[in-house]
Each structure stands twice: as C-alpha cells, then as structure tokens.
Amino acid sequence: MRLYGVTGWKNAGKTGLMERLVSEITARGFSVSTVKHAHHSFDVDHPGKDSHRHRVAGAQEVLLSSRNRVALMTELRGGDELTLEDLLHRLAPVDLVLVEGYKRDRHPKIEAHRAETGQPLIAPGDPTIRAIASDTQLESDRPVFDLDDTSAIADFILEEVGL
C-alpha cells in the first residue's frame, strides 16, 4: 500500500492540507484513505446511543453499520495504542493512504508549516520529510511549496509514490 504523510506542529495547517489533498487526488481518479493520529482522548460515539451502551457494557469492539457507512470502534481498555502498521492492516486496499500525524514513524512526509505558529521546522532533523508546504518563503535543501498550492503538492506526492 502506498503511504504518504502530512506532519507538522499544532495549527500548522495539516488538516486543511489533508482535506484539500484528498479532494485533489480523488478528483484525479485515485482511491484514497486517511489515518489521523490523536494525542488526546476522543470519542466518535454519543452517550445514550445503542452503540455507546454496548461499549459501556464492556464490548471490546462495536461495529456500527448502515447503507451509508460502517464504523468499527475498538476499546483498548488500558492496552497499548496500535501502531501505524497495525492500523494500516485494517484498511481496505486503496491507491494511496494519507497519514496525518505520526511524526516519529519512518514513512515519507511533507511538513505543513505556518510562520504564525512560531515553531521551528521539523524537516532539518528528519530525513523522512521530503518537502515542506509553507505560508512563507523558506530556504531548505528540500522542495518548498506554497501551503495553498494543493495541485503542485499532489503532483509531488503522486510522483513520490509512483502514481
């Protein structure tokens, strides 16, 4: 499975870039799935709903299905967080998986950077970052794209992964 990441510090524009890349790449006829890492506790379920009641009662996994979508919720209940590799094995085959977060994993990435965050670039110390998408001009030993030039960024990623 072809894999490419979008990484960067908080509020650097990762999610907006991911959203635009999914739209751009799927419009070109490729199938795309995404994986998003959360550093905090989250819940996609709602108290009082049947699926939530199943989880609270102790179900390890709850599979929610309708004619529009399927959602599998797995309770780790104190167990180890799944690795990116583990998660990728759970996905159906697609042309490209875009990954948001997972800074420390070794897949190729583009770094989203906004000057207003005041954060330094991650790229100088990370060879897995192959390019930078920034809202400001930067000097780098890697390609630098305008953060809003989704088409050029998509071209770069697709070339990198051989699509």
TrEMBL record:
Any one GO biological process: Mo-molybdopterin cofactor biosynthetic process
Lineage: Bacteria, Pseudomonadati, Pseudomonadota, Alphaproteobacteria, Rhodobacterales
Coiled coil (residue ranges): none
Protein's recorded name: Molybdopterin guanine dinucleotide biosynthesis accessory protein MobB
GO molecular function: GTP binding
Residues in Molybdopterin-guanine dinucleotide biosynthesis protein B (MobB) domain copies: 5-135
Species, as recorded: Puniceibacterium sediminis
Pfam families xref list: MobB
InterPro entries: MGD_biosynthesis_adapter (IPR052539), MobB_dom (IPR004435), P-loop_NTPase (IPR027417)
